[in-house]
Amino acid sequence: MSNHRIVLASRPKGEPLAENFRLEEVAIPVPGDGEVLAKTIFLSLDPYMRGRMNDGPSYAPPVQIDAVMGARTVSEVVASNSPDVAVGDIVLCDAGWQEYTVADAKKVQKLDPSVAPVSTSLGVLGMPGLTAYTGLLNIGQPKEGETVVVAAAAGAVGAIVGQIAKIKGCCVVGIAGGPEKCEYVVKELGFDACLDHKSATLAEDLKAACPKGIDVYFENVGGKVFEAVLPLFNPFARIPVCGQIANYNASELPPQPDRTPILLAAILTKRLTFRGFIVSDYWSQYGDFQREVSGWIRDGRVKYREDVVEGIGNTVAAFQGLLKGKNFGKLLVKM
Amino acid sequence: MSNHRIVLASRPKGEPLAENFRLEEVAIPVPGDGEVLAKTIFLSLDPYMRGRMNDGPSYAPPVQIDAVMGARTVSEVVASNSPDVAVGDIVLCDAGWQEYTVADAKKVQKLDPSVAPVSTSLGVLGMPGLTAYTGLLNIGQPKEGETVVVAAAAGAVGAIVGQIAKIKGCCVVGIAGGPEKCEYVVKELGFDACLDHKSATLAEDLKAACPKGIDVYFENVGGKVFEAVLPLFNPFARIPVCGQIANYNASELPPQPDRTPILLAAILTKRLTFRGFIVSDYWSQYGDFQREVSGWIRDGRVKYREDVVEGIGNTVAAFQGLLKGKNFGKLLVKM
After folding, report:
1. Could you tell me the residue range of the domain that residue A94 belongs to?
2. Which residue blocks in A231-272 are alpha helix, DSSP H?
């Protein structure tokens, strides 16, 4: 028995390549006093991880070279030196990209599989769901009858943003990659429309889909989607800035002339509010979020989809696909 | 006796040229029932007027070709067909760039010259002062000990922003054009420092002047000042976007690569709040503003400076100078 883990071998320039990572086989660690040994069941892959691969200042420190890539996991306790956690308990912890971890028993969070499938604690009822809920409600502040545009609408965050905006009585237009995702977003998730960002006429398509302009844009993409959205903002529109996945692999600025003056002029003349946020800014709303979204899931008003990849050996390829929009739903690696 | 007025002869491309305007001599208009004839004493020149010379949608309609350029004025009533307004009253009205206007008596606002010099109703106690007060307090929300950076610090708005930020206990760094203005901003207005935006080392100068980073940036300039400010924002910094004077005459985008991704990444990772505003969004705070700022002027805590040009014939040149930062204090034309 051994532990397989993936470490950061070198920092990617642009797209992460297989050679930037190293799959290692090491001994299973031994828990000390007050610690547990946890075996990973599900590992969450999320776009923010691309930022952690870079050096330089950000809101969280980078992953060090030769260190295990970080990730939140759902794990099973297989050994415990704490009276508070029993073998067989299913817990949320931060094992990273590996099969086993030792964790402080005080820092793991027990999950109750009878309440919801445990994988949801990494998705709709976890960090991505909280991101959607808090960013939309605190910053987007959607009002009945307004138009809300959601990028990456089939993704773990976007899907929840749009469904909550529908519950709030908004007209909701998604943007996603390809006809299959767009169909899912409209037919399954109940958005009013969904546009394919691969369309050559995205800007025109979006204008047609938003005849009353855009009041809220949940920004997690950047790039050409953002360019299509910018001209359509109504006065006093709100833009929660949650991610910039289109730019995460960029190693150079776009060669087109600097459009910053256009953006600042729009902010000024349309009185736009752009506000960036990180989910950890809103931990205090976790209780409200869980209660409310769990209720909506039970009522069938919020649906979710998971894209589950099997085995640690497929983790790097799955993450590479995530940055290209190849996943369809919340991306998880099942061990 | 006749009325001299300046009309928009053609729309400027880039910098407004003398040929874009026409000085006309016309008959003095005759007030109807309920109207007054008002003779301009002071005419306010403000950067936003550049935007009104352009066609195309904005927050206010453009000035039509052959129409009188708009402006708020302090005027003396020289004829009245209303019992509410007497000949000799000094009023605030919207005469535009001309010597005489006819106005609805209900729409002029009487001024009391014993309370404050009437010119201040176009500056520190008028629209520029309200812009400074509401933008800083509602959006900037400066807290004691924070660092506030103010562009165009010797201008009608910036000077008031910085002095209010000092009253709120902040470290205040101004940016202005040339050593004379910078000296005035520090010695007269009491800012902690003021940097010359013409310096080749502006970015380094600003970094040195803001050792604890920037918490509030009152943005009314854009361009290279904004570029110098952007890297220095602290997490959760607030940026009221009030103007973009560096770009008002621009007819092309800057040729450098598109920096929008840098701006959006900063908004995201530093959780910045950019919010545009127009002074009219905050008319409801006019009473609080007047009471509070009048008090600060009486106490000597807020100082102001006016740059008075004489005669309607100098209006166009004065406005051209305003866009180049040639004025020193609130720019007024005295008839």
Report:
1. 3-123+305-334
2. 260-269
